[in-house]
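Hi there, hope your week has been kind to you so far. Do you reckon you could talk me through the fold, stretch by stretch? Thanks so much in advance, here it is.
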Amino acid sequence: MLTIYTADDHPVLSKGLRDIINVQHGFQILGYAADGETALREILQKEPDIAVLDIEMPLLNGIEVVKKLKENQSKTKVIFFTLYNERSFFLSAMDLGIRGYLLKDSAPEEIISCIKTVSNGGAYVSPSLSAFLVDRNSQESILSVLSKQEQTIVKLIGQHKTSAQIADLLFISEKTVSNHRSNIGRKLKLDKKQNSLLTWVLENKNKFLN
């Protein structure tokens, strides 16, 4: 029996997801939560095979839940079930070792296919996001001197996001973003002129952004 835990703060979507899973032979839902804090606690307690999590949740978001699961050496495989179809979120999820990334407009058959694929040790991404996987290696090559989070910040700068917006998107402080920007400039050997990083990103973004 494949055990599954779900977490989503939208009651209708949460019930719909559980209904899709419940009709499948060999699947068992161990529980569900409407916030990340409850989800984290119960996943650690119940140790389901798979957790299907929304990214945006109260108390702890999905990314924070995954980080804490990793800190606790949880063996639960995580699938993100989300509205976010932006490259930055997708790449952040992949960097965390997420095994599945599903958009909330996925058909029931796709949801089940994702769960089965992940349970068998594979990885599954919504077809509409598959191009992100194709580009991922080439994107990383030009930015290989940067950490994963620094790479994500560079890509967000290329999308004309401000430091405040980047902080909100990545769930970190604006001061942390500022520190990352300084480190990125140093690693890319940019001069210390104002906006030198932005200028570099805009001149080179065709090499790592669609």
